[in-house]
Specification:
The chain is an alpha/beta fold. It contains 16 helices and 14 strands. α5 packs parallel to α6 (about 160-175), α6 packs parallel to α7 (about 200-220) and α11 (about 315-325) packs across α12. The model has no long low-confidence stretch (mean pLDDT about 95).
């Protein structure tokens, strides 16, 4: 059965095309800075938003038209596998991501859940072998089950910690079976509602204990190449989540000696919620050599929650792709569309239209970022701005040839400080020329 019978494989038709089911800017084989677009961006589809999200919100019921739905949960799960791989192939992406509870129903017990997972994962593996489509990353949903009301690894209930650990073990087993290269930890409920009754130190230490167990287990089963990705988010669903942003997450990883196997999976909308830009979070991660993978979406600054819109903001995407280029690429991570269609875009073909819009935006962002890099635009700006550190007292500071006494003597001898204007408005206007 075809779930998208009226849609053929999406083709590149160029910027003059008015076909909503064609790429206007993303040409997978086009070479940019020595690599094809496909190689640069390693696009991935998120199983949860694309195949399980139903369009409901706190104010209304489900609206999405999805032909794979049945009254039987396992039958629906099997249908989703068929629909997903048809979608991946027609869209032309090489990767996908999923939470355990996206692909299989929980049932009435953890044991039943694992049996359901085994059955569905076997179907997924068959499809992967047939199509060559690969798993970018998987993860354990340790937030939607009611038992996680007080957290998962951070729960005040040790039994819940144990169930959480069991899901992580199963997820690592699945990763090995599907030849996964990354495993994500998103602490959906790893935080606190109120500090009054919270032992923050104990909770963070327990999270670290679980992460070390995950590393040990992956080594034990011969899955040492697996990279663990920590995904920052400051709030939602908890009032305060422990992995607030990239800097907070790196402090946690350093404190608990986890940096050898962990990098960051950064999401644009989570950066917005933390009061940062996407490129800020990426730059922080790069400074720690910890830029692991990206969740591509965007938020709405007028709304105070995680809207997970498909990315169409070319300004933000260009700066994000510049960070990817400066990082030397994103492999073994990728660019995963952790985005959902709007509630008003409820038809089946909207799933294609939305992904095409995101992929075209990233293609344009890549080209603009490549122009910026080839011209050395940002490098030149920074060289000029920090020129005082190239010689004299600035060079002495960088080479650590000075101390507070010698700097004080130097400062007392200064007749005036000569700062220069940044001309930031002109710089932004020039940046617009590169982008648009």
């Amino acid at each position: 059965m075809s779930y998208f019978p009226t849609i053929d494989k999406i083709q590149f038709e160029g910027p003059k095309s008015s076909n909503p089911l064609a790429f206007r800017h993303y040409n997978p084989e086009e070479v940019v800075l020595g690599k094809t677009m496909k190689e640069h961006m390693r696009f991935s589809v998120a199983y949860w938003h694309t195949f399980t999200q139903d369009g409901s919100d706190p104010f209304g019921k489900a609206v999405n038209q999805r032909d794979w739905l049945t009254d039987d949960e396992m039958e629906t799960a099997k249908n989703r596998v068929e629909a997903a791989f048809e979608f991946f192939e027609k869209l032309g992406v090489d990767y996908f991501c999923f939470h355990d509870m996206d692909v299989a129903p929980y049932g009435d017990s953890l044991e039943t859940f694992f049996k359901n997972l085994d059955e569905i994962v076997e179907l997924i593996k068959e499809k992967m072998d047939q199509t060559g489509i690969k798993l970018l990353w998987n993860t354990a949903d340790r937030h939607s089950n009611p038992i996680y009301v007080h957290g998962a690894a951070s729960s005040s209930n040790a039994d819940v910690f144990a169930v959480s650990a069991a899901q992580v073990k199963k997820g690592i087993d699945i990763s090995q079976k599907l030849n996964g290269k990354n495993f994500v930890f998103w602490g959906g409920r790893e935080g606190y509602e109120n500090l009054i009754n919270t032992d923050m130190k104990l909770e963070e230490e327990n999270i670290a204990r679980l992460y070390h167990m995950a590393i040990d287990y992956s080594n034990e089963i011969g899955h040492e190449e697996l990279t663990f990705l920590l995904e920052p988010k400051p709030k939602e669903p908890m009032k305060h989540q422990y992995d607030f942003d990239a800097a907070t997450s790196m402090a946690f990883l350093q404190k608990y000696d986890l940096t050898d196997r962990f990098k960051l999976n950064l999401e644009a909308n989570h950066a917005t919620l933390a009061g940062h830009t996407f490129e800020h979070e990426m730059n922080v991660a790069r400074n720690y050599d910890a830029l692991g993978s990206l969740d591509a979406n965007q938020g709405d600054t007028l709304l105070g929650w995680d809207t997970d819109e498909f990315p169409t903001d070319l300004y933000s995407v260009t700066l994000a792709m510049y960070e990817v280029l400066e990082n030397g690429g994103i492999e073994p991570g990728g660019i995963n569309f952790d985005a959902k269609v709007r509630r008003t875009s409820f038809e089946m073909d909207d799933l294609f239209i939305a992904h095409i819009a995101g992929m075209d935006t990233f293609a344009r962002g890549l080209k603009a970022a490549a122009r910026l890099k080839e011209d050395g635009f940002f490098d030149q700006l920074k060289d000029e701005r920090y020129a005082s550190y190239k010689n004299g007292i600035g060079a002495d500071i960088l080479s650590e040839k000075v101390d507070l006494k010698s700097l004080t003597d130097y400062a007392l001898g200064l007749e005036k400080i000569d700062n220069k204007s940044s001309h930031i408005e002109f710089i932004k206007a020039q940046l617009n020329d590169y982008i648009y």
